[in-house]
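User: For my dataset I need records formatted as: sequence, then structure tokens, nothing else. Please produce one.
Assistant:
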Amino acid sequence: MESAEMNNLWKLCLSVVITQCYCYAIGKIIPKGIARLLCLLPVVCLSLLLPLNLSSVHLGGTFAFFIAWLANFKLLLFAFGKGPLSSPSLSLPRFLAFACLPVKIQQNPPAPIPLLNDHNKENTSREIPVPTRPEKGHQTPIDYGIKILLLALLLRVYDYSEHIHSKIILVLYSFHIYFGLEIILAMAAALARGLLGLELERQFNEPFLSTSLQDFWGRRWNIMVTSILRPTVYEPILNMGTRLVGRKWAPIPAVFGTFVVSALMHELIFYYLGRVRPTWEITCFFLLHGACLMAEIALKKTLGYKWRLPRVVSTPLTVGFVMLTGFWLFFPQFLRCRADERALEEYAAVGAFFKNVSSLIFNDFQIK
């Protein structure tokens, strides 16, 4: 990475910390409602402009996702006393972590196991943590290590891209985006866990095992985004729809409205990445998935939730549909802004940096 880019990043991080401290103070002195919203809107607008100061795919994309999207939506909830920032007991360090990082406190952390005394088994005053197997869906360090190795392997495969069919390259890009996103979000969660000592919710839940679009988007893919869109978009539209069409069918317009907002935010992220005029293919991708998910929900409500395709059929259909529509509508914009080429250049620059550092350390050790 260029030194100027890193300098910009530090300045932007400092700006974010200062503005979030201001938001924390506003929460202490301004009651929830329109007045607090008006006080927070300048920060929301500034957060939309800050990513324009970064040109790196990895730094700019990550910063835009964390700050321009997730942090802003959390602030909108905070304005009305909702969301993860609204707890009155939240300290400033935790407020900063929950505002700036894509993390969520685990709702039901595992309880410590009581230590039983052989002489008095009713004495349970002392408790010790007992190693347990990871909760279903949670990833272990070994899992992340394997994904890092697979990502490194993908980077080596790209060296032979001129000998590989373009459609196969798109399949590799799909895995690259999944591995990259999960590793970045896991690093952010590890940072928050180390600083705060809290158990955090998982970010992904094996999306390649999805049995339906509802399963993929609602419970497996980028769960942090789902948890933010639910209270900011889905639930308000659901409440409005309940009054208009009834509780049974209200989720259908709520789902579509959520995908519309998600589409617009993805268009914004891609603008940050490429600074090119949007072609709205990303919007079409999410609107198509929103429409298909509406149809899926309507079909389940009509036929009943007991009727399901076998997993051996539904999983390939779901994953195949996501990937094929991604090839058609998602990746063209991704390639148009040269995000793939620039990302590989950044990987090469980071690799060269560590190679030079290791050479200097090795030479210094030899001299001594």
